[in-house]
């Protein structure tokens, strides 16, 4: 039964990906937007989660405005998924082939870190803007290693990954036990990219995100404390079709106090603060549909 | 630092960093670190705790070849002069 379901998912994914590749770009984007509207309409549970999350964040106070932001975030997600999957067809920025449609909003201190071949960097990002494009764009400057959670269906996972040109952006599974790959990546002078707003299923700590406790992974803070490699908060705004602006904040360097819990918490709070500010400026580009505070 | 003191201090650190309950009396130097339930996240905890407890300034990648408790003891002994 499970095998049959996996095969059905694979067949559906093939049809979807085929359509995404064959349609001209404006049609594919239009279809993505309409598909997002349909999902928003039909998937009541996910719609409620997204709308409730927007309200809980305090970005807007009334339900109508929250619903509008939630719907826009569904459309945004559909657009960035389609753009990411089409990047191989069009050789766009997202595919790492061109830097023509990228704007850099990066302080001089980060520019210096990116220009230093031997300097590793920990990139902290969230489900804001286009995180796939952020890694691809940054890899134009330095090799990037991203940590990912593979899909439950290995055939679909392979199919999707085959369609994403990577260049100097590589992915490593979060289930891999080898910590050495992180240290080696930073030692080589590469970028290690981590998403900070994923719910920690086990051994996380609760850190306030928009004022509400959220189970948070501590890995990024521990990596910084043990390696002393600076953390840069960065994200990629989608300005228009295939057009992105990469934003980065001043590097974060936290001196050890000797109290591990306190240091880890201070780092995570500082990163959440930066993420919250970015989300407040572009709430429609945040993925509100996941249960961050469960 | 004498070896018995080193072993005791390492044991304290590992008990703190290890996410699973382990019968530490059964653990000898041939035991792999992975078999103690130390995954990549726990390894980060362990690295921090070792740097802190032994006041060592080592690069985490120096631990890449460390696979067993004995390897870890040898690694620390070389640095603290046991």
CATH-derived topology of chain B: Non-ribosomal Peptide Synthetase Peptidyl Carrier Protein, Chain A
Question: Which structural class is indicated by helix and strand composition of chain A?
Answer: alpha/beta
Helix proportion of chain A: 40-55%
Radius of gyration of chain A: 19 Å
Q: pLDDT under 50 segments of chain B (min length 5)?
A: none
What is the CATH class of chain B? Mainly Alpha
What would you call the shape of chain A? globular
Structure description:
- The complex is a heterodimer of chains A (294) and B (82).
- Chain A has 294 residues and is an alpha/beta fold.
- Chain A has helices at residues 2-22, 25-42, 44-57, 63-90, 108-115, 131-138, 154-162, 180-187, 219-227, 260-281, and strands at residues 102-105, 121-125, 144-148, 169-173, 191-195, 205-209, 212-216, 231-240, 243-248.
- Chain A contains ten helices and nine strands.
- A seven-stranded mixed sheet of chain A has the order 1-9-8-2-5-3-4, sandwiched between helices. A two-stranded antiparallel sheet of chain A has the order 6-7.
- Chain A is globular, with a radius of gyration of 19 Å.
- Chain B is mainly alpha-helical and 82 residues long.
- Chain B has one domain (3-20, 27-80): Non-ribosomal Peptide Synthetase Peptidyl Carrier Protein, Chain A, CATH 1.10.1200.
- Chain B is globular.
- Chain B starts with a helix and ends with a helix.
- The A-B interface holds A 176-180, 182-184, 187, 203, 217-219, 222-223, 225-227, 256, 258, 260 and B 19, 34, 39-41, 43-45, 47-49, 51-52, 59-61, 63-64.
């Amino acid at each position: 039964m499970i095998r049959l379901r996996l095969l059905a998912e694979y067949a559906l994914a093939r049809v979807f990906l085929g359509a995404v590749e064959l349609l001209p770009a404006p049609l594919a984007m239009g279809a993505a937007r309409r598909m997002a509207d349909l999902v928003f309409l039909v998937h009541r549970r996910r719609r409620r989660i997204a709308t409730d999350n927007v309200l809980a964040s305090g970005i807007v106070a009334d339900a109508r405005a929250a619903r509008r932001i939630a719907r826009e975030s569904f459309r945004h997600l559909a657009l960035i998924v389609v753009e990411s999957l089409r990047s191989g067809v069009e050789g766009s920025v997202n595919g790492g082939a061109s830097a023509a449609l990228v704007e850099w909003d990066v302080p001089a201190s980060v520019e210096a870190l990116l220009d230093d071949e031997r300097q590793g960097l920990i990139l902290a990002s969230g489900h804001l803007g286009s995180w796939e494009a952020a890694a691809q764009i940054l890899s134009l400057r330095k090799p990037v290693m991203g940590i990912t959670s593979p899909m439950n269906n290995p055939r679909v996972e392979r199919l999707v990954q085959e369609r994403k040109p990577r260049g100097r952006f590589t992915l490593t599974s979060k289930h891999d036990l080898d910590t050495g790959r992180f240290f080696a990546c930073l030692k080589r002078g590469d970028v290690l990219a981590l998403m900070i707003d994923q719910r920690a299923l086990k051994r996380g700590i609760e850190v306030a995100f928009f004022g509400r406790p959220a189970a948070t992974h501590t890995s990024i803070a521990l990596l910084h404390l043990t390696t002393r490699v600076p953390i840069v908060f960065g994200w990629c705004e989608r300005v228009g079709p295939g057009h992105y602006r990469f934003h980065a904040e001043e590097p974060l360097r936290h001196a050890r106090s000797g109290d591990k819990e306190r240091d880890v918490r201070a780092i995570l709070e500082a990163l959440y603060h930066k993420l919250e500010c970015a989300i407040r400026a572009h709430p429609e580009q945040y993925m509100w549909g996941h249960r961050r505070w469960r | 630092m004498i070896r018995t003191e080193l072993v005791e201090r390492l044991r304290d650190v590992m008990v703190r960093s290890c996410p699973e309950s382990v019968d530490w009396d059964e653990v000898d130097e041939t035991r792999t670190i992975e078999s103690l339930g130390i995954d990549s996240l726990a390894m980060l905890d362990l690295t921090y705790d070792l740097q802190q407890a032994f006041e060592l300034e080592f690069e985490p990648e120096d631990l890449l070849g460390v696979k067993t408790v004995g390897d870890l003891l040898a690694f620390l002994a070389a640095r603290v002069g046991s």
